[in-house]
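Cross-posting from the modeling subforum.

Setting up a comparison between two proteins and wanted a second pair of eyes on the formatting. Protein 1 (sequence, then structure tokens):
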Amino acid sequence: MDSTARPSRFWIRWLTAVAGGVVAFGLTLVLAPALTRQGFSLLVYASPGRIDAFGLEAARYISLAHAVLGGVMVGWGVTLFYVTRTLLAEGMRLGWNLVALSVAAWFLPDTAYSLASGFWQNAVLNAVFLGLFGIPLWATRTTARQDR
């Protein structure tokens, strides 16, 4: 294959690092429930102890929800990592499409619900992640060739 049809290593490394960040964030949600509750409590309520003030049962359930979300993020991040390092790194349109579509499939409903429910802070966090994915995707859009 012609090497000019492959995305720049810089962008592949960038996307690989972002995918690794998704995995690390997911693992944090699973392995550090107290830190996760404090972080989201600070993000949403500007107070690290507000979620814990909901009571033990509510805090435990919120930790479960975070852990389930974290597990899903680990799986998604590993998939993004693999697709980026294989299909996308080879310049395959399928790889680019898989990354772009999965990011859009996450961003749109998550952000829409965050805004509709009044938790705009999560939408801002989502926008940061969208930028981390979007910049290299935009930069590699023309280098991904059409697959057979």
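Protein 2 (same layout):
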Amino acid sequence: MVDRQSEGTGSPVMGERGRRRHGAARPGPGQGLARRLALAARVAAAAGVLLVAGSQGTIPAGAAGAPAPQASGGANTDFQFSAEPYAAPGSQQRSYLSYQLQPGHHLLDQIVVLNKSSAPESFLVYPEDATIIPGTGGFGFQSRAQMHNTAIGVWVTVGNTSLTIPPGKEVVVTFELAVPADAPPGDHVGAVVVEELHPPASQQSRVGINTVLRIAVPMYVHVVGPVHPALTIESITVAHRSPIVPYLQQAITAVRVELVNTGNDIIDPKTLTVSITGLIGGTIHSYTVHQTGAAQSKANPLPIQMLPGARLALTEVWGNIPPFDPLTAHAVATGTDPTTGLPVTTAASTLFWYFPWVLVLIVIALVVLFVLWRRRRRRARAEAQGPGPSAPSAVPSPSPATQGSGALRAEV
């Protein structure tokens, strides 16, 4: 199923009338809480609207090319209903559901569903875990047929899962959140999803595809216990294409970095710097991306939030890499733990050599051919000169003069 979700890499959220947190405040200094509230406000600026059509897999929130965000109950004419956390008369409207609970505790809360169409409408209400989108660092929601709940989708029980609402009326739906006694500590993200069962005829696709509209009311649950924020560069790999003639042809080098939230708390990534340095040339290339709060794109590849276990894969490609210089690829990532407001940093590097191997092999072949040619030339010269003069005898024969003198000495 294809979900139309909000821009940004947090979960799709709805409701723009307030920013009040529900439930107990998260532990940590006031600054950390303020940062989490500010972040949630940015995420809440996107719509909690899900458009389902067909039977495709998860569509990431904030994927490149996704439709522009629309607030639930806003100007989007596709949606004739809205869903948001319930606010008692006189209280400030919440933009999302957020709780801090001890393992084994439970609570009751409510959402309100409004039918804005001119005909009665039926809805299905159910809980769902957020799904980490591989490689993007963000998360979204599966279709109802493909979702696999292990946390919030299991912990939440909706009182009335099937609704039929008259035109212009609203219904308050009560649900219970029960955290198991053995629930792992840290952050868990999910949603209470309201799915339209029978859309009006005006919303039916002209090409015969049955369109199903869903709105996700996001839910953040922090289970009290030891918090271990950690952002890790799990791998950094280098691939390159060597030219035959360096400096005349361009060498292409690609550095791939995998950034993983290896802790149990949500991390807000801030920057990621990838660079290449040489032993001779110093810093050859360097590139830094910053989290701007906008939708993910090539210029802004960092998600707003990374859930525990989320993995982000980024590849940076450069040309004009000098040959014959020991090179090192570096990656440094920074983020913030919104629970405590403390910074989180990770770094990794890898050494690689770049050679124009084809040119090197050609040079080696020429050197080998030159050496063989020199040897053959020396051998040919030696054969052309022929054998040399015979060597003199080792013991020369005595001269006549010497023989005579010896005889005279004998006679005396």
